[in-house]
Amino acid sequence: MPEETTREPEPGPVTLTRAERVVPSWNDPLAAAVTRPLGGPLGEHAAVGRHWFWSPQRVGLLLATLALMLCWFGKGSCIQQYQDSSGATQLDWRAGRPFVAMCYSDIVPLYGAERLDRPGTFPYYTSWKESSQTAENNTRYMEYPVFTGLFQWANAKLAAGWLNVARSGWLPGALPVAIYFDITAFFLSAAWLVTVWATGRTVKRRPWDMVLVAVSPLVLVHAFTNFDAIATAFTATGLLAWARKRPLLAGLLLGLGATAKLYPLFLLGVLFVLCLRAGKLTPFWKTAGAAVVTWLAVNAPFILTATRGWWEFFRMSTLRPMDPDSLYNVFSYISGWAGFDGVLQKNQTPTYLNITVAVLFLTCCAGIAYLALAAPRRPRVGQLAFLVVAAFLLTNKVWSPQYSLWLVPLAVLAIPRWRLLLGWMLIDAVVWVPRMFYYLGVDHKGLPEGWFLGTVVVRDLAVVGLCVLVVREIYLPAADLVRMDGDDDPAGGFLDGARDVIIPNAVRRRRRKAVAA
User: Fold this and answer.
1) DSSP label at 279?
2) Domain for residue 90, yes or no?
3) Interior angle at CA 239, CA 236 and CA 243, nearest 5
4) Is 337 exposed, middle or buried (0-12, 13-18, 19+ CB in 10 A)?
5) Residue 16: inside a domain, yes or no?
6) Would I find Transmembrane among this entry's keywords (predicted)?
């Protein structure tokens, strides 16, 4: 019998096989329906992961790029120009254009409101007076966390440099605010692409779930409404670093995210309770320590040398009344009770409102911590992260429409059910329409407040429904799509597949019964 010879495998890229990669067109009705015009669901003998270029990551990034382009065209109406009667070029915001065209973006008015259009200014050091405030509160500074404030300032300087080159004829010119908006939109697009990429890398065997982040209706509406894509990018990459068991890098990224928005810090609480249950506190302390050091390294120079300007964000957050999008405003409208609204009459801190917000959020956090420690199986990082951020938005006195972007990547990690998530995202995005016409005013053919608040209630009920489903899947892991596919916690890092040190009493009793039987 001839001696057998072995052949070396041909070199090539290492890819996931069909058995390792979850195919959405096989197990999600919406994905299967979408594929029908393109030939139907993936065939049983189809080659997966063999294409030389079009991986799920690249397809997702392409779709995200197209979505961001559509968002820019939607916002582009608000940077149109016209010449007034004197021949001067002005920004065309006549006749309520930002609300009628639904193109409003905070980026445009903040260019002047934060004094970014003036040479020689610097965030947290430059102050100005506002006559609309009381004498003791009329001195104002940059009203954003440090990273976001410096991001705005850097883009303003880039816009000024662009205009200097444009005057030489090498670049097209426009109003400074239009150039500033386009430069800001470019960097925010890059941040959202990073969010999409990091989410796709974190979900491991479900790479196509990143499409939900890429083409979310919320991205079409709110990618350039404010600067929140910066925080989502840091948060998504921080979770990816944690999933890859790099706690110091995870802490660095979450700390940077906290210098742009507050919510990335909430994820440290999520990691703490899960690491406590698994007895993996050492990597948590590394992550938390790196996050704190990073936050201090960015903020300390301003705390020490521009304390009053640095504190402006926290001062204005305390003074801010309830937002039109908040449940407190809905309650006030329905009940007619103005107890939360004292700041509007007296220009004082809304103490009762702030206390209510803090108590409700801390109560929700305590409930989520109990859920993490008492559930029959340790919850996944994505599940608890979504619950905490959703609880913050639901109980907070401010839910600016772009805040919903925070939930998009976390929802994909927590509950990758395409129809449910796209349904919620569509409802949330549609709230923008009545909001714009509510701000237009009834006198200018806008909508009355009740119509707007009705859509807010529907949006909040949709988020609550997702939270209920996440809690159900935590208590019934067999219904969790991620765990049905054979994974434990793709974003868990050190927690993925780890044994529990803290075992709930219900689990102990179940084990005793099994042994006794």
Assistant:
1) T
2) no
3) 135
4) exposed
5) no
6) yes
Closest CA to 281 of 505, 498, 460, 434: 498
Cα–Cα distance, 26 to 207 (Å, whole number): 14
Number of domains composing the chain? 1
Domain region containing 143 = 53-83+95-516
The torsion of the CA quartet 50, 56, 57, 63, rounded to 10 degrees, works out to: 130
Look at residue 370 and tell me if it is in a domain: yes
The Cα–Cα gap between 212 and 426 comes to 12
Q: Residue 445 domain-assigned?
A: yes
- Give me Rg for the CA atoms of the chain: 25
DSSP 420-437: HHHHHHHHHHHTHHHHHH
pLDDT, tens digit (0-9, with 9 covering 90-100), for 60-98: 999 999 999 999 999 999 999 888 878 788 888 888 899
Instruction: Render pLDDT for 348-404 as a digit per residue (tens, 0 to 9).
Output: 778 889 999 999 999 999 999 999 999 999 999 999 999 999 999 999 999 999 999
State both tokens at 271.
């990691």
Widest distance between CA atoms in the chain? 101
The predicted model scores a pTM of 0.89
Question: 115 with 157: CB under 8 angstroms?
Answer: no
For residues 388 and 368, the answer to whether their CB atoms sit within 8 Å is: yes
Q: Helix/strand/coil (H, E, C) string of 43-78?
A: CCCCCCCCCCCCCHHHHHHHHHHHHHHHHHHHHHHH
Handedness of CA 510, 512, 515, 517 (dihedral sign): negative
Give residue 489's region: left, alpha or beta (phi > 0; psi -120 to 50): beta
